[in-house]
């Protein structure tokens, strides 16, 4: 890891790392999901006689929250309290995110009730968006509506993440009508739509193999001046594959390339999946070769698709 190399060079040069250096290293491992190494560097920080602060503990919580490891989140929160360090709204947001990721919405709501009364407006927005994410993952659109209403009552203004999360909840629930209603409310609120917004709208159609509706949202995206990203095309490809239309899958793959978006391993694997389902081994071989020629590395899903 480059951060570690820099640390080693500093030590070799006789420069003692400070709290900021240790926190940067810990954050790097937290973002990479390497929580064991994150905690190891926390131990080195303590061994160096550097006191931990709010930032340090928030990084520890963030790392475990990303993985939904609520037991370690609770452990480090307790350690923070024992050290006499006052938790911030960011601290609680990390805890909320851990429970949302773990799918434990009951404890997520319990921790929301412990949030400090005062906090930065941006952090309050994050708190509500995490609550919505937790219920959206379960397709619980009634509870999403509840927290959206509480959000407005608290004077917190929804942003694109708020509405995209609500759309995702409707997509998970398979409620296309409600999803389109939330999209209209997003537009009425003058919140800027983005590639994630349209990707979510297309995702619901793709799950059902409704390729005409997928194309409708793709056209709407272009009309809105939103540039499609690789994830948008991957969703379109998946919709065609679900519909069993390999010719249309290849057509969209060509449009993806023509638009200047480089296909990734997901795009190629989706192409392979479509042909594998029809037993067309020649086209599977063709697209596998094209994948290698493009310098795209096959992953475990690619090989599983070919073996199936």
UniProtKB/TrEMBL annotation:
PPR repeats: 53-87, 124-158, 159-193, 194-228, 229-263, 264-298
Keyword flag NADP: no
The keyword Repeat appears for this protein: yes
Keyword vocabulary terms for this entry: Repeat
InterPro entries the UniProt entry points to: PPR_rpt (IPR002885), PROP1-like_PPR_dom (IPR033443), TPR-like_helical_dom_sf (IPR011990)
Domain PROP1-like PPR: 201-307
Domain of life: Eukaryota
Stored Pfam families: PPR (PF01535), PPR_2 (PF13041), PPR_long (PF17177)
Alphabetical list of PROSITE patterns matching this protein: PPR
Name of the protein this chain belongs to: PROP1-like PPR domain-containing protein
